[in-house]
Write a structure and sequence with these properties.
The structure is a homodimer.
Chain A: H1 10-18, E1 20-26, H2 55-67, E2 71-76, H3 80-86, E3 95-98, H4 103-118, E4 123-126, E5 132-134, H5 136-150, E6 158-163, E7 174-180, E8 190-196, H6 201-210, E9 213-223, H7 224-234, H8 236-249, H9 254-261, H10 270-280, E10 284-289, E11 292-294, H11 299-305, E12 314-317, E13 322-326, E14 330-334, E15 339-343, E16 348-352, E17 356-361, H12 368-377
Helix pairs in contact in A: 1-5, 2-5, 4-7, 4-8, 4-10, 7-8, 7-10, 8-9
Chain lengths: ~375, ~375
């Protein structure tokens, strides 16, 4: 189903979709994917699905039919060149470069404030650069519903896209859906009763059984004005700082103001700064997404997303990988041209990079973050 | 106990020990230790015990108090420089360089023939360059008994040094001992009833229980004349070729004759060419060795020979290794300076070299040879 064939009333579609700008926060290092993903080469710059596209490029391509060139990518200054190589379509006005990471409320809030200066009627949609989603058209249909919902009513809504849970995950926060909303062009939009933190397994199983809960994938679509209203109400200092930077952004004073203000801004997640208080105020809606979604949280996910070749129990990732296996299963990510021989070992995870090697199991893949913390603590920062 | 304090009658000692020359065949690649050990850097050129000495250097040092500078090292032409770096004491007359490998009968037979030309009364002792033995003085006492036994009687004896078995190994051949011999200076020497091939586990258990069997470690001491007599009787073509090369060895014709004759020599193990028929003829004796012995047959042996640091379940080998472990056990051999992180994996074997990586388990360490064969078959010979 292409966007052009979506059943959207023409008038509303022109109005809301034309105000849409896709924001792509490209921040997290993806520590659980070390040593492949690291400060100098974070997760979003890797092709983790064997598709031939890096995650950030795939994110851009997935949003392009809706955003039609209207993008804002928020990333670290160190990643400017790599991001521009991945998305040569971006011009300098489409990039927000952070001098240091300030968590999601500052990153997304600055994007909202800049977009608001440029056009106060903007509807922003924020989609992390390092998630894997398919198929694209199901995703796009959900985003389109979210755009219409975001544009509905007097002030609009902050609209999350919730993921239909497939298992009782304890690794994600959940969104509890409520009454259906009656929005033209968004038949599946509902109100949000509450956001809940990562639950215990027991609680997650109840959530799954109830059918009322969706995974919070951190995707949302909202009028920038409404975003900023909630930010002002809940984080006035952050809001003031971001407003000051945004006012200078498209002027020769950008660098001076950003250098002065940004370092002092509070670090807080957008969930606490905006989404949860906005939900409590009744300003948040949810559109369920029926697409496949994976945040590629660890190397076990790499195994899920890259099935082994026919008749082979080992998933191999990496161009020109030279992997020989005998009675082995698991995942090999090869970022070198070295020969790798696996013999008689099950469910192993091997990540081979020029300066660091990880050997673990699928079961322990989540613990990679702990190893990175240990390396940091012992001063082995050259490989982080 | 130093050699000087060994309880040996002075007269006999002068006679037999002064005729002793230590031969060190440095041949095998040590395929089961790939990718650490390989054609260009075979097992004997590695320090596999963390002692600071390569195996060949340790072999030389262990024999020095007996051989007192009288050595003959038989190795491939490709290893000349590396061997001379390890044993700078060698001069060119102490080196026999093979243009191509011809198995142990040709290598040891040529050493015997060359030594016989130089001095027909020579007693040679052949000790592979890639075994780990301790303590040295117990080994030296056994070799000294073997030297006296080799020198006894009219023609002397071919004397193997048999290893007291510590478990029912199916990886070694066995020597069945017989009647005690009555040799001055060799109280533990016995006749050899037979050599037997690598047994099944059931048979090996019987051997162990009987107390009559020793492991055949391929170590022997013998008058070169007796060695050559048996070689002539059992492998006349090989004997003729070796005699021809030996006649030219210390002359300007060495290279021409060796280049013409060596490539056509039959490939056969010394066990079949000499030891077994000599045993059948009643010419073989055995001296049991009570020293610890390990042929470092696979990476599990590396684990045995290099105990983990206190409080750490992972044995790490390699200078400057940067290994971080969490809930892991096993062996890491690091031939690079890469950071290696092991998380939640048991009894693993990791061998990290600049161009090849092996990941297996202690249990499957013996199967490394199969992987090398597979790599060879698929043409990945650059890493072999």
């Amino acid at each position: 189903m292409s966007i052009d064939s979506l059943p959207v009333p023409e008038a509303r579609r022109d109005d809301a979709l034309d105000r849409f700008v896709a924001v792509i926060p490209a921040g997290g290092v993806g520590t659980r994917l070390w040593p492949l993903s690291r400060a100098a080469a974070p997760k979003f710059l890797h092709d983790l699905t064997g598709s031939g596209s890096t995650l950030i490029r795939a994110t851009y391509d997935r949003l392009s039919p809706l955003a039609k060139g209207r993008f804002l990518v928020v990333t670290g200054q160190a990643h400017r060149a790599a991001v521009c190589r991945q998305i040569p379509e971006l011009d300098s006005a489409d990039l927000v470069l952070e001098s240091e990471p300030k968590d999601s409320a500052a990153a997304i809030g600055l994007a909202a404030a800049i977009l608001h200066r440029r056009n106060p009627a903007t509807i922003m949609g924020s989609f992390a650069a390092d998630q894997v989603i398919s198929p694209d058209d199901v995703f796009q249909a959900a985003v389109l519903e979210a755009i219409h919902t975001a544009a509905s009513g007097d002030r609009g809504k902050i609209v999350t896209i919730g993921i239909q849970p497939t298992h009782p995950s304890t690794g994600f926060g959940y969104i509890r859906g409520g009454q259906e909303l009656d929005v033209d062009g968004a038949p599946s939009a509902r109100e949000v009763v509450e956001f809940v933190e990562k639950p215990s397994l027991e609680v997650a199983e109840k959530y799954l059984a109830s059918g009322e809960y969706l995974w919070n994938a951190g995707m949302f679509v909202a009028p920038v004005a409404l975003m900023l209203d909630h930010l002002a109400a809940n984080q006035p200092a952050l809001h003031a700082g971001l407003t000051e930077i945004a006012a200078a952004w498209d002027t020769p004073q950008r660098d001076e103001v950003a250098a002065r203000v940004w370092p002092g801004l509070p670090k807080i997640a957008i969930d606490y700064a905006v989404a949860e208080p906005a939900a409590a105020a009744g300003d948040v809606a949810v559109v369920p997404g029926a697409f496949r979604w994976d945040d590629v949280g660890d190397f076990a996910a790499i195994g899920r997303l890259n099935s082994a070749r026919e008749g082979d129990a080992v998933t191999v990732m990496g161009e020109g990988a030279r992997v020989f296996t005998e009675d082995a299963s698991g995942i090999v990510v090869s970022d070198t041209k070295r020969v790798i021989a696996l013999i008689g070992i099950e469910d192993v995870v091997i990540v081979d990079t020029p300066d660091a090697l990880l050997v673990t199991t699928k079961e322990h893949a989540q613990r990679v973050k702990g190893a990175v913390d240990a390396l940091k603590a012992s001063g082995e920062t050259d490989v982080l």
